[in-house]
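Input for the complex:
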Amino acid sequence: MDGQTGLNVAVVGATGAVGQQMIETLVKRDFPIKKLVLLSSARSAGKVVTVNGKEHVVQEAKPESFEGIDIALFSAGGSVSKELAPEAAKRGAIVIDNTSAFRMDQEVPLVVPEVNEEDVHTHKGIIANPNCSTIQMVVALEPVRKKFGLKKIIVSTYQAVSGAGAAAIEELKEETRAILAGEAYEPKVLPVKGADRHYQIAFNAIPQIDKFEDNGFTFEELKMINETKKIMHDQSLQVAATCVRLPVETGHSESVYFEIESEGVTANDIKELLKDAPGVVLQDDPANQVYPMPADCVGKQDVFVGRIRRDLDNEKGFHMWVVSDNLLKGAAWNSVQIAESLVRLGVVGQK
Amino acid sequence: MDGQTGLNVAVVGATGAVGQQMIETLVKRDFPIKKLVLLSSARSAGKVVTVNGKEHVVQEAKPESFEGIDIALFSAGGSVSKELAPEAAKRGAIVIDNTSAFRMDQEVPLVVPEVNEEDVHTHKGIIANPNCSTIQMVVALEPVRKKFGLKKIIVSTYQAVSGAGAAAIEELKEETRAILAGEAYEPKVLPVKGADRHYQIAFNAIPQIDKFEDNGFTFEELKMINETKKIMHDQSLQVAATCVRLPVETGHSESVYFEIESEGVTANDIKELLKDAPGVVLQDDPANQVYPMPADCVGKQDVFVGRIRRDLDNEKGFHMWVVSDNLLKGAAWNSVQIAESLVRLGVVGQK
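Predicted:
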């Protein structure tokens, strides 16, 4: 890193949970970096982060920080992205934004490389990284959509607390410890930081992620619904979601029901298809109790799929169970993958 | 209890988690008991259980134990029920069986009093208590079925470990403690006692409850599918289920999608209906973050329903979130309710 050739890369939110994973993933993938610039809020500026044996001082992110930057990975919250992503783009950087700030903006491609890599060509300076729970679902469903057509999705999620940030992880651990010791604990973070009410997550399940819309759905559920249609370029696709937070540190799981267009497709056909699908690892052997679980997916980049079976009433309906590390494929890895797509497709040129 | 008038009641499996709840519920409901007989396996026989201030020595359950018994509540495992329930019935007792041994037997009514109380009249000595996850779902859906017709159900469950017995509760606690302390822990109980493989439940989600069938569904899922049709007397009802075990001690949650027959029904219509439905408590006020959660339902007899909203694509489709104490409405309370129905409908007469 910081090599003679390569790209100038900025990471905004470098000290956060996802930012750290982004840096680690860039290193692990040996991404061609000429200069690495680590940025954060004023509060975290000055911290020293060691990358590949070299110390980097984290600087406060300002519009000028993006002069000469080729790719800027943003993961510092929606308000930071709204303010600084256009500034970075104005200065010639391509922003890969991990917040929800621009995802539904018609000018901004929303990209999961296994699904719609070519959409990076349409960027106008900003590319959005989808919501974590959306990404793993579309990776698992895109091969099905392409081969058999996709009509309807009904998903119920089982989401880890790390999606709500480092404070939520701390809350889960401290609260669990307190409950086991018979001590009181006052929740302050979950389900939504800054909301009026906070609830126990330890040994519980909270059917709220993000705030509620007037139609009774949460923003998280609407993200899954709207982002899926945008990524798959199909506004007629029917999508419904129920999003639930669990006492799991990392790894989102999803119970996915889907209906296809083709007739006569068997569960084995779906399994055969997903066995060789990009980014997917099939773990589906009920006889030997093989299926994906969040505890097994942590630190892995893949989307794990199992429990594939045909509905007993609808021969075009299928059920499956999809698990992935929400901080990697759900965030950092998908962002770095988009950066790799930009290089491979020649959208950014190495200097 | 042990009053001058009333019924002779036996509890089989009196020392187990559900058996204890059955006894407590009988006391709490002031059920008219003349004589209470506590029975168990040979292993637990001789234990002393105090009921309403009076000590009862638990006896080994044998065919002769049921002489003179009016109602026998069974919760000691399927093999005990298979062996002894017919013996009890032969001796004139009405068995209320909490195992899966007789649920799908055509001669045996499967009863949730809020739904099909009248079915107790058809008993031939044995009445079955449905699976815990089935009960709470049908209590929430029966008012909808009666008023608007019910066509299809797709449910994903979030089930507590207490459904797998006291050893599973112990495993969840010990394993959680070990993981927080950074110690190793070897799972021995979950997902299925006696299965080849056991998996970590702490900070995890296991998409297996009970064993697998050849069609890829688990027995637990098939129980929900088949029992729902039988209880609602509708074999044409489409039901699909995905059952998942969570690190929750008590309280099952369910993400339920359902399609009705009637047109023009709104989410508010469903809420109005469930507000006054028997056995249901509506907790549905998203603006104030009011929805059911397992941590809040423990020790309560009701079925809690919230997050009711209409599907965005199908105007006859709705989503809701259903939570109940799996040991109470899911087991002990429903069994005692059946006993109360037997009395109220005059199927058994007090002596």
